[in-house]
Amino acid sequence: MFSINMKQKYVKRPVVDEQAVKYLQNEGLSRAVAEVLASRGICEQNYDDFVNDRDVFHSPFEMANMDTAVETINYVMECGGKILIYGDYDADGLTASSILSLYFSDNGIANDVIVPTRDEGYGLHADNVLQAFQKDFYDLVITVDCGISNAEDVNRIASELGVEVIVTDHHELPDNLPDCICVNPKLGYPFPYLAGAGVAWKLVEALAGRDIAANYSDLACVGTIGDIMPMQDENRALVKLGLANMRHKSLRRLAEQSNCSAEITANDVAMRLAPKINAAGRVGSPRAALDVLLGRDSVEQSKINRLLELNDKRKQILEEITAQSDAMCNAKTIAHERMVFLYSDKWPHGLLGIVASRYKEKYKLPAIIMTLDGDSFVGSARGIDAINLYDVFSQCKDCLIKFGGHRASVGFSVAACRIDEFHRRLAQVLNDCDAGLFETRPYFDVVLGEDCNAQEILSLTNKLQPMLPQDKIVCRVTDSVRFANSFGKEAAHLSATLACGLEIKGFFKYGVYAPFIKNGANVDLICSLETDSYTHNICGIIEDISLENSLCFDEFYRLNLLKSFLPTVCSTANENGALEAISGDSVAVVFDDFETYLSYVDKLPLEDFYVDVFFDSGKSKAVVVSPLDGYAFDRFDKVVYFAKNGFTRIIENAIYVEVKPARKELYELVLTRDICTAVYSALRKKSKFENLKAVYDKYLTAKLSYAQFVVALRVFEELKIITIMDNYNISFDNTTKKNLTDSLIFQAFQKR
Fold first, then answer.
1. What is the distance between the alpha carbons of residues 2 and 22, in angstroms, rounded to a whole number?
2. Which portions of the chain are predicted below pLDDT 50?
3. Sign of the CA dihedral 151, 157, 159, 163?
């Protein structure tokens, strides 16, 4: 069903490890399944463990300096010393802090935890430790999820307080390590990708053995998932162990109030628990989350309520920021600069990363979001797969006070007086990159029905558990729709059944597709598979959907045009002028119906164009067939509209090319005085609870077509006989008598 005339919107996930694929094929797996497993880290070295469901745990003493750390801690414990734990404000740092605090408390060792706020910034701050020592004395300071890049702070603590410091961390190693005991898997360990909570858990395992450490694995599981660590090797084993031992009473209560499954899954942790733990540090004090995480053996509902309140506050503030930032966005500027670049003087530090991620997903371009902090801006940036964001910032580092991160995510600060210079430099660097790097297309793993069937994919998904949301197997499906409807608040969600029998659902933005596809439309979509909790059937959860031309679209092509055309004659370009206009990297080519588009496929250089039927896909080069109101034409440098002159939509700055439509009936309609009278009479009978479509269904279906009803409404609006405020509310103007023949729209149909 894939069209040969359009650029494919979805691409097969590239094979990174061909050797692993060949090995898995030799083990009897199909090429498709072998590619799925290889892309998720399964290879010759761990295939046997995967098949036999064996968990991989390494000895904690294989981690560099673990033996020295254990010796030091045991000495302090034997002497009855007091320990200060210094953590971080995110889910990983907070769970890591809780693991050590609970372990020491369980063994009668006095301890305190301090965590910096986001305003204070990530990392070990000697001032915070010095302040804690003013209130009490500690025999040992242990950092978790931080400290490896804070050599100066460690030296200051050691020299001014005379106390030993143990750094446990998992971040990248700096050029200069702290002069203390450093426990970090990147210093030497069979698996270097543990989370900060994973390192803390390995420390407990080294101190007390795995059986005892298992009691803290639920917290390590939350931290590992919250920090989005790769679900491979020991991380997989630790998450499985934590999910199986999820006995933490406060976490379980939080899960219940977050609508998690009875048996908490990795997806529950990623989507429902970790965001709430992170919310405390984003919009309040991380202490609120720490208090919940330390409540392992008893539940204080007030503390859980406080965490839920902070999460609601996060959502509310995020909505406010999004509304403000949306108003700042100019689609054409964003396309030209190849980035979203926004800043304010009042956005909370803790939400910048989330906002950047949202805009990165929305525009499929790097997003840089900043807020004013004194005389400088602090910011968070998120990048797309093909662009190394760290390298981009490195080329602008002379504009910055500081920056750090990796290829996908960067944190930074820039002097307020240099913000414009920084903006220009970033745009220049990104525009010097190859344009093809910014052409993002969603990946899929298998073609359902060709590579594998739904049951095989679901079984493989279950075998790969625990699985994070970003690791799910993505299936491409092309089929016709047997049934579809929208549901939920404001009909935002989509439920449909395909001809092959697969049930599919799309949440939050897919409900608008229901009326277009419910009568047998062809769709090309990508989805993941899961078991529906109500029907227990296999269900596809839509990741993205595209519409393919279908017979049932003919009436929509007609209605879309009738709702928006104006009977005006536009100046037009010839086809040579159109060919010149179509060249470029930001172009929309518009047709009123699919058949007219097909008649031009061989005449125009459209091979590199995606095809949007009705809906905006956000692509920079698009053939747009029958666009709905609100299609974002303002983001294109050029818009070329192939249309029947005198019967066109008005698109600002468009270049019009007159065509002979393939479907002349698209423009034909009988509109008489009697029809308009019938519509007006029906509107007068409308109750305040009826929408306009309901008026047509109730009074007019036997008398005229819905297209005639729509055009009659436009005539009334043009003559100001009625004003349509929204789909439910209209007002009438009875002050003056109007003649239908004064309407240009009415006249247009008298000439045909």
1. 28
2. 1-4
3. negative
